[in-house]
Design a protein that fits this description.
With 123 residues, this protein is an alpha+beta fold. Strand 3 and strand 4 form a beta hairpin.
Length: 123
């Protein structure tokens, strides 16, 4: 289950961001998860709380956005969803394609906690 490693990398990324920006509170981490990235959202959501326990992310919400796995058919130029069409072009039936999106996993946003006066939470 490589989702534990992904959760650890999210934690390292946020900890580095927090240290560089003098932040000590995070409300939410928003990640983009490509349909073709091999990251299983349910597994990541289950492992995340264990990995971040006792850290700056302990109270932070994890939000996963799904990025569609889109491809262009190399034979007829049709753009299609790879998962939805099981890898085959719905227009011509070809399996030859160039993947356009949905292969990566990334931290998209880190939402910092606000203090009681509306400012960001500095260290």
């Amino acid at each position: 289950m490589h989702e534990i490693g992904i959760a650890r990398q999210i934690l390292r990324t946020v900890e580095r961001f927090a240290a560089e920006n003098g932040v000590d509170g995070i409300d939410e981490v928003v990640c983009d998860n490509g349909e073709l990235s091999l990251v299983i959202p349910e597994y990541l959501e289950k492992t995340y709380p264990m990995v971040v326990k006792g850290t700056i992310l302990q109270e932070a919400k994890l939000t996963l956005n799904t990025v569609p796995g889109l491809a262009e058919c190399d034979d007829c130029d049709e753009i299609f969803n790879v998962v939805e069409h099981k890898g085959y072009c719905p227009s011509c039936g070809s399996f030859r394609k160039t993947v356009l999106s949905g292969k990566t996993f990334s931290v998209k946003e880190i939402i910092v906690k606000e203090t009681g006066d509306g400012s960001l939470s500095p260290k």
